[in-house]
Every structure is written in structure tokens, then in C-alpha cells.
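Sequence and structure are no longer studied apart. As an example, we show below a sequence and the C-alpha cells encoding its fold:
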Amino acid sequence: MSEPNEPYRVAVSSDDGGPGRAFEHLWTPYRMAYIRGEGKPTGAHDCPFCVIPTMSDEDGLIVARGTTVFAVLNLYPYNAGHLMLVPYRHVPDYTDLTPEEVAELGAFTQTAMRSIRAVAGAHGFNIGMNQGAVAGAGIADHLHQHTVPRWGGDTNFMPVVGLTRVLPQVLRETRDLLAEAWTSSAAPVKEA
């Protein structure tokens, strides 16, 4: 039993004085559906990353289209301007990409960073891929890279305690601004 002024802690039998004594527990039971894979795509026929390119840029929230990859706003962003860079091909692993896809993915990453800085003045970025379901990939069968803009002080109590993200702009407005900035932010193509 906790003392009146101490936080409530759940005893974990395997802690042996370890992390359970140092960390509080944040219970998120709604995540169990995600962990179990409920409602996740089962193949290219229902993969959102395969369906999105068939939509208009506005309806699919596509910021830019390349030859082998496209940039799309995340429908469930961690921060305003959270982009995903996605190959058109339905492949699960970075090692499955062709050299052309790797090159365009890299160029799109640079342009995404330039565009977000131009539009929103991001101070930094989290850029990465979760490879495989065990690594946290929400859609493990279709590779995608996250480009998340960050600002000093953007981590606060709202997402942690309030389970709420504060996004100052609707996704369609963000898409329009980034799409407009994309062209001027792209590096010129050098002729060989």
C-alpha cells in the first residue's frame, strides 16, 4: 500500500527492485487492438499506401509525386507537418528497394526537410523507419519513412497526460502549403 503522498504503483513480481521501482506505468489498453493487428491491411489490395496514389493529391493528402516514391501527410501525425515518404512498390523492407528508389527516397527526405523548414520553421526532425511489426511498423508490409518536424518545447503534457495532440492547422491546409513549398525546395537535378 502506498503512503498518502506517494504515487500509486502496481507491484510487478519480476521487477526484483528494477525498473518497476523507478518508472511509473502508463496504461494504454486501446493499443491492444493495434498490437493484435485488428483492421490492418492484409495485402496490396487493401494497403493504404497502394490506394493513396490512385487518389487525387488533395484527397490522398499527397504533397509530391516522384518517379518511384511519393510524399504524403500522415493521417495521424505526431506533429504538424508529419510527412511519410513512400515507394509506390509494395515492398516491406529497405533492402528490397532498388538503387533508384533509395536515391529518390533520399532526395525526397532532403526536400521534405527544406519544405517543412520553409513553411513551418522546424528546429529539427525525427526521421526514421520501423522495419517489421515487431519494430513498431503500423503497416509493416509497405515500407514508409517518417519525417516528423520538431520544435523546441513541442513535447508537453498534452500528449503525455491529456492523450491529445495539438495540431494548429487542418491537414488539407498543411498539404497545400507543403505542396507549394515543395517545388521551390527541391534540389535542381544535375545533368550527367
